[in-house]
Amino acid sequence: MFTVYLMPLQVTAILLTSAVVGAMMIAEFTHADGTHQDVIEHAPEDQVEEGTS
Residue 36: enclosing H or E segment and its boundaries? Predict the structure, then answer.
């Protein structure tokens, strides 16, 4: 049974992989001055709040 569905499985894997790569490429953010930046930004270390315990 696995041999019957081997080709559709491979086609689906390729399509899903290309969809993930495409989504990552689309997720790039472009500023008004033309510079690129990731959508997810990390806070600078001086702005990270320490947890109180």
Answer: strand 36-37
| Conformation bin of residue 15: beta by default, left when phi > 0, alpha when psi is -120 to 50 | alpha
Which residue has 């510079």 as its token pair? 35
Using the predicted structure, report yes or no on whether residue 15 has a pLDDT greater than 60: yes
pLDDT band for position 26 (cuts 50, 70, 90): confident
Whole-angstrom distance, CA of residue 20 vs CA of residue 13: 11
CA distances from 14 to 3, 26, 30 (A): 18, 18, 28
